[in-house]
Every structure is written in C-alpha cells, then in structure tokens.
Amino acid sequence: MARRRYSSTLNTPPTEPKANETTTKLAIAGAIFAIGIGVGIALSTLNPTPRTVDAIRLDNLAPSRDFCNNYGASAMVMSSRVYVTLNPFNVFISQAEPVPGCVVLPNNWNLLLQKNVIKEADIRQCKDRMNTFGFTGDLEKSPNVDCIYESKDATEKFTNGLPAAPSPSPQP
User: Fold this and answer.
1) Listing from the earlier edge strand, what are the strands of the sheet with 144-148?
2) What are phi and psi of 27, to 5 degrees?
3) In angstroms, rounded to a whole number, what is the distance separating the alpha carbons of residues 53 and 68?
4) Percent of the chain with pLDDT over 90
5) Phi, psi of 170 (to 5 degrees)
C-alpha cells in the first residue's frame, strides 16, 4: 500500500498580505479609475460622426468663423417654405435643411456696415421691428443677411420645459 503524503502548507495559518502589496494594489486600482474617467471625458467630447452636432462643431462650421465667434454666436438656420391652399384648405411645408449661420450681437452692427452687407436703413428698420441681424454664407463673398428677433417664449420653453397643465377648477 502506498503512503500518502501530506502537504505542509495545509497546516500553516494564512498570512496577511504585506502593507506594501496592499498599497500597490490600491495605487493600481486608482490609476485605472482615473484613466477610465479621462477616457470617458475624452470620448464624450469627440464627434464620432459628422451627423453629431455640438456647440464646438457648430462654432467650427459657422460662416466667417472668426467674425462670428468674436462678435456674435453660431447658430443652426432652418429655412422652410409654407404653402397654403384655400379651396380646399390645406397647409404644406417644405422640408427644412439646417445651414450653419451666425447671430450678430446688436452692438456689433457697425462691423456689418463696414463690410457693406447692411445699410443704415436696414439698421433703422431692424431696430423698429426686431432686434438683431443674422447671416448665412461668407461675409466676404455674398452672405444672406436677415433681420431677426429673439423668441423669448421658445427660449423659455426650451430651457424650462413646457409649463404645467392647468388643473381643473372644482365645480360648485
């Protein structure tokens, strides 16, 4: 009959890991965590496809980019045409295509005057009706400049959400 051999390691008590090993493991885990956060932030700011639009990409696509970034704000411009028939009454809307544009701050209108894209009469008319100018296309070539107004209602709905529905009043 063969003799069984017993390992001497079974009878020894487990040893505590050294403090140096624990510190090393914590440092490695912390480094992996920090790298993960860094990679996550980097990936969230990238535009993986040209169909993804964020503020940085919009600023880069703005017409006359330096002018727009210094004297206004980049914007997406949507142009659409509405056709209304009266007999029978129908409303048809063409598909809107977003185009990069720029909204010029009112205190920078004189720069548009210097570039000869607007006239004094345009400024007077725009001040009376609306509040600023916006354009698409390169300012040095042939931009399309419009007098535009800021829709406070749309801004509030976008930033604050839709107002709560009114509650029904009790019937007496």
Assistant:
1) 72-79, 97-104, 132-136, 144-148
2) -65, -40
3) 17
4) 7
5) -70, 145
